[in-house]
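Journal club prep — side note

Before the paper discussion, L.F. wants everyone to see what a predicted structure for a comparable chain looks like in token form. Sequence:
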Amino acid sequence: MHQATKSLSDHVEVGEPDPISIVEREFGTLMMHLIRYKHQVNGDRIDRMALMVLGTLSYCGPSRLTTIAERTGLDPSTVSRQVADLEKAGLLARESDPEDRRAIQLKATDAGQAVLDRLSHGRRRRFERLLSDWDGDDIVALGRLLGQLNAATEKYGDQNALEIEQELNNG
């Protein structure tokens, strides 16, 4: 027998915050926890955005700066600064674009890939620690729900970006 889906109002207890407020608060708390971590590579601080650029190159392969900017949602000038820092640290290299020798492609170096691999293994350990007291079904549900949230974020990304810009600029 198919059970009817409950509306959000069915989940609100008298005197309790509504479910969207709870999600908003908890997501904000999670984001604050995540941004506290600092990234140091061989004594030099590597910006999170730089690691995002490096990860994009690792995932997508050699790419032009403009392509990286599009894929990450960062401004090209920001990507350019991150590329300079990554190149200085030996984590990124420039090479000629095989389709247009006048253009330059960027790629993660072996050292850059090694940093990403270490971060990936460490992230896995941290997730295992964070979720060690959770029931397996809850972990599966979290993964599924995060997938839904990511899909909705992608679906409404342009609309949300426009609204945020308007809210910032028009009070």
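L.F.'s comment for the group: The chain has a mean pLDDT of 87. Keep this in mind when we get to the figures.
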